[in-house]
């Protein structure tokens, strides 16, 4: 029995796990390829999470080293962070809706939800860039202290991921428009959805560890 | 296009790779329901976390721990409802890869904090170095 016959593609499914365990059947070549592509991308995402974990570790070690400069408590605005969080969560949700639309070959659902995903993602980026520029203008740029360096590295790295994800999103809209819901395009869409949902998971860690724990008064 | 679709048709409905077969109206509703439940739970947990930061209703030293627990819970919600990582028998490989990733993440973060705290503790304060 092949590897693929024992597993389900990460990301879009859940149907296979709903019922009682069933006898694995022989999968078609395309089904098998889809599972292997999804699994490979899942491994990449986990390695990306491990890279983020080292930035988190650096931030946690350096958070108090402000060199006399402003700390997170002086700099962070939780209302902005709440909006960023809501935008990214709605974006992640819309991405899931877009995948359902693509599986159903419903153009309006797919393109509409992808557009909503892009708008919320862009709104998140706008707020984040505004926050960064505000901090730099207030003299708390990345070179101000070890804390500021660690902050800009961690949160900026997430922002770069969101930027790349937005470009990928637009590419996927164009590819479906040009080539239709072909199996290879659907595999790329699967990988994009996994990427986008994972960015939201990393943001959960960021808004908790950096922002909420940064301003909470014990 | 149509023969590709035909090749993707499934042998039975029970254990299959999710994907390319056009979903029926029933499947769309079912899929949407999962994402809506996930969205609701994630929004609820986020709201509680933001509420806890400003409240004086609970014993304040417990708040950082509570925030971390809520974050882990929300990541779990995202994994289950958005990435569809489940404990089903067809998901062993995905869960095993995730477990290994979590192990490495834990080693990096806890290990770094532990070692750096230890080094800070053992290092002579700078104002004593010239004595």
Runs of chain A in which pLDDT lies below 50 for 5 or more consecutive residues are 14-21
Query: How many strands, what sense, and barrel or not for the largest sheet of chain A?
Result: none
With helices defined by DSSP (H or I, 4 residues minimum), what is the helix count of chain A? 7
Q: Given the structure, what is the number of helices of chain B?
A: 4
Q: What do you see in this structure?
A:
Chain A has one domain: Four Helix Bundle (Hemerythrin (Met), subunit A), CATH 1.20.120. In chain A, 76% of the residues lie in helices and 0% in strands. In chain A, α2 packs parallel to α7. The longest helix of chain A is centred in the N-terminal third of the chain and has 34 residues. In chain A, 44% of the residues are buried. Chain B has 131 residues and is mainly alpha-helical. Chain B has 2 domains: 74 residues; 44 residues. Chain B contains 4 helices and no strands. The N terminus of chain B is likely disordered. Chains A and B meet through α1, α2, α4 and α7 of A and α2, α3 and α4 of B.
What's the structural blueprint in terms of helices and strands?
The complex is a heterodimer of chains A (218) and B (131).
Chain A: H1 15-18, H2 29-62, H3 72-75, H4 78-103, H5 107-137, H6 146-179, H7 183-215
Helix pairs in contact in A: 2-6, 2-7, 4-5, 4-7, 5-6, 6-7
Chain B: H1 2-7, H2 25-54, H3 63-81, H4 92-122
Describe this protein with a few key phrases:
heterodimer, A: about 220 residues, mainly alpha, Four Helix Bundle (Hemerythrin (Met), subunit A), 7 helices, about 75% helix, elongated, B: about 130 residues, 4 helices, about 0% strand, flat
